Predict the 3D structure of the following.
Amino acid sequence: MKKISLLFFVCFFTMLRAQVNLSSGLTACYALDGNATEPVNNLNGTTSAVSPTVNRLGNATSALYFNGSTSSYVELPETPLLKPANALSFSCWIKTPTYIDQYILFTRNSLSAFFEAYELCIDPSLHFMTRKSGPTGMDMVVSTTPLTINTWFHLVITIDNSFVKLYVNGVLDGSTTSSFNGFDYVSGKKTYLGITNEGMYDMPFTGTMDNIRFYSRTISAADVSALYSQDPTCAATIKTGLNEKANASDLFQIMQNPVNDDLVLKSSIAGDVYYQIKDLNGKVIDSGILNDEKVINMAAYQSGMYFLHIPYQNPHVIKKIMKL
């Protein structure tokens, strides 16, 4: 009986490890090594009144310190890669020296109250909280784990059309069902680390942030556990324990019909994937979100060669497309 039980747990954890893929759906990764450089899709952020500091591993100038003022923040680009249509995950490490409510991550919706399209914060009860809200609903999760000052926490939120979940230090700490589909984004309102940039309703973050990641899918509990235990820098190779396909293009079908100028894109992965079509000079002609299947009509394109770019994982998918 003991041998059977041992075999079951070995098989279970082997399967769990095999399901981990920390590159799948990764849209942005900010090591915050004294700056807001982003190597996955060049979504470089703009820093304001933040300073390089020691990270959770004791490495100098390998994290960013936010001073707790409304002028201390990181502003991220306005892009569908950070505002996916139906699914999002966000991972970070934080440490704060103050027992106050404060924002870690924020982007705006169209409402005048409960105006977080999605957010992660320390709430007035000094627990971690995530929320998405819009005209048709508001979904909120508050952690059971309380804040402890001067202590590193690993926080992950996952949001899709089924659930909103909050993980603390690698473990699921709260979940609620989604009451509405998608997100209520406001065009032109950017995503921020450390503030809301919303005037009177701004509770700036005081403390240190390290290793920020965005995904266009809801990462699994196994992924979260791997991020908590490994979480290398953005430039490092991630040990996924996965026998991954050598070419990410195997996950996508790209079919062109020259008769009606339709370009058909099909995805075999769960979640949203960003795509761009560029001309020979690198100018973006078209862009959007691929979820299952997308038909792009190229009738208005000039004859010539174009490049389809899908930054799903490294190496990115880049295909030549001819318009006759």
Q: What stands out?
A: Residues 1-18, 236-246 have pLDDT under 50 and may be disordered. Residues 2-18 form the longest helix (17 residues).
